[in-house]
UniProtKB/TrEMBL annotation:
PANTHER family: C4-DICARBOXYLATE TRANSPORT TRANSCRIPTIONAL REGULATORY PROTEIN DCTD (PTHR32071:SF57), TRANSCRIPTIONAL REGULATORY PROTEIN (PTHR32071). Residues 7-57 form the PAS domain. This is HTH-type transcriptional regulatory protein TyrR. Keywords: Aromatic hydrocarbons catabolism, ATP-binding, Nucleotide-binding. One of its GO terms (molecular function) is ATP binding. GO terms for biological process: regulation of DNA-templated transcription.
């Protein structure tokens, strides 16, 4: 039994003298007790409420909703916001008072005018929403504003790459650039260097597949005078030493032999090396970047590439998507190369719309390099200031059938095969940077590629 609230007559003076808005109703919803402050939120005198039914007051719009029916329904304390008049918002708390047998006998309610608080809350909510909107716009703007000089990075995947590079700008961390041939790994490596704390130091690029294994160590670590037959008297500085204070970029790292992988791992771990024939250790002082178009994780599984070396290199992996997955970049690159190459060759050139539409449809297996080469070819060979689809080399007319491209009339099979071979080689040359890459792609030896390129003068 709640002794405090049971005898309202005893409490009469206490409640009625309170300045706050307190009311007591019975279980029929009749207001049986009011305080001095009752009704002030509703714009009526306390006496105007006393003896009235909350249902009636609700109907008349003095307040809405009434709290008594809610407390009776839920049989527990209820807090709600009432509307009073057209503008006011009142926070009302209703508490049930039970009799000995557990039935609600009275409901005590007290209220505060929270109109101002709610207005402030709404205002705060709108400010928060506005801030969230501004923040996302800023994020977008910041991403868009990551301009990479001489590099087109309009697409979302490239913006993400740019954002990662921006985040690691001040850190001397190893970056592994992954992606198909021609996607721009070397260009990005240069960009990373130019935007790093080592930008004033040298950028040394080593193409791991282009240096024969027999001389790799001497080229890479340098050698002392007389270290081997044919060595220069004074010795020679290797790439690792040349990169002092700057960046050492190991391109095509996936092509390194197992023996050289082991050497490289030791060198990365020890952070020092010896020139071939030398006894004095040289301290390694550079930031390491590496790139490959090989699936290195797969190469680790097939044991072609050392896992420990992979972990050392894969600190920050940057995957550069192929151009066919970056339509926004493709369009921007076409415009970029048109301008840059036209300027370089002092030729004012424009592209016809049908040609641009056609270029946007192509697969670009050789990625940005292939596009750049084709643009250069179009610009230097076209005789008119507007380049059209007709100016495209035959291999870029994808709709045309192979039958139409090979002319049998009066040709022997060997000459047709030669013609095809030449076209395949030109195509491969557009896509790949080195003859080793072409050889790998076409499944022939590198000397054979060199011979054929010479034979066809391409
Ligand atoms: N986003 C880009 N904006 C402008 N030029 C680019 C961009 N990406 C690549 N290029 C240009 O495309 C050509 C090929 O790029 P790059 O040599 O960096 O490719 P790669 O991925 O290193 O190729 P590979 O694996 O064969 O070494 C370069 O001339 C480079 O400057």
């Amino acid at each position: 039994m709640n002794s405090f609230f049971m005898d309202w007559n005893n409490e009469k003076e206490v409640i009625s003298s309170l300045e706050e808005d307190i009311m007591v109703t019975n279980s029929d919803g009749i207001i049986i007790k009011v305080s001095k402050g009752s009704g002030s939120h509703y714009g009526v005198e306390p006496e105007a409420l006393l003896g009235k039914s909350v249902y009636e007051l609700e109907r008349k719009g003095v307040f809405k909703p009434a709290i008594t029916p809610e407390v009776l329904k839920k049989k527990k304390k209820v807090i709600l916001i009432q509307k009073a008049g057209s503008r006011k918002k009142i926070l009302v708390t209703g508490i049930p008072v039970f009799n000995e047998v557990g039935n609600i006998e009275h409901i005590v309610s007290y209220s505060y005018d929270v109109s101002e608080l709610l207005v402030i809350k709404e205002y705060l909510n709108s400010v928060e929403e506005e801030m969230a909107r501004v923040k996302s716009e800023l994020d977008l703007l910041r991403k868009k504003s990551i301009k990479m000089d001489g590099m087109i990075a309009d697409s979302l995947p490239m913006q993400n790459v740019a954002e990662t590079i921006r985040r690691i700008r001040d850190v001397d961390v190893t970056v592994l650039l992954l992606g198909e041939s021609g996607v721009g790994k070397s260009a990005l490596a240069k960009w990373i260097h130019q935007n790093s704390i080592r930008k004033d130091g040298p950028f040394i690029e080593v193409n791991c597949s282009a240096i024969p294994e027999s001389i790799f160590e001497a080229e890479f670590f340098g050698y002392e005078g007389g270290a081997f037959t044919g060595a220069k008297n004074k010795g020679k500085m290797g790439f690792a030493e040349m990169a002092k204070g700057g960046t050492l970029f190991l391109d095509e790292i996936g092509e390194l032999s197992g023996h050289l992988q082991a050497k490289l791992l030791k060198f990365i771990q020890d952070k020092k090396f010896y020139r071939v024939g030398g006894t004095k250790p040289v301290h390694a002082d550079f930031r390491l970047l590496a790139a490959t178009n090989k699936d290195l994780e797969k190469a680790v599984q097939t044991k072609e590439f050392r896992q420990d070396l992979f972990f050392r290199l894969n600190v920050v992996p940057l995957k550069i998507p192929p151009l066919r997955e970056r339509q926004e970049d493709l369009f921007a690159l076409i415009q970029y190369f048109l301008q840059a190459i036209s300027k370089r060759h002092h030729r004012e050139r424009q592209l016809d719309k049908a040609l641009v539409d056609h270029l946007l449809q192509l697969e670009w297996k050789g990625n940005v390099r292939e596009l750049e080469n084709l643009m250069e070819r179009l610009i230097v060979t076209s005789t008119s200031s507007i380049i059209t689809k007709e100016d495209l080399p035959y291999e870029y007319h994808m709709q045309e059938k192979v039958d139409d491209l090979i002319h049998f009339d009066g040709q022997s099979l060997p000459s047709i095969l030669e013609e095809v071979e030449k076209k395949v080689l030109i195509n491969a040359k557009n896509r790949y940077r080195t003859t080793t890459q072409i050889a790998n792609a076409l499944g022939i030896s590198q000397p054979s590629v060199v011979r054929k390129l010479k034979k066809y003068d391409c």
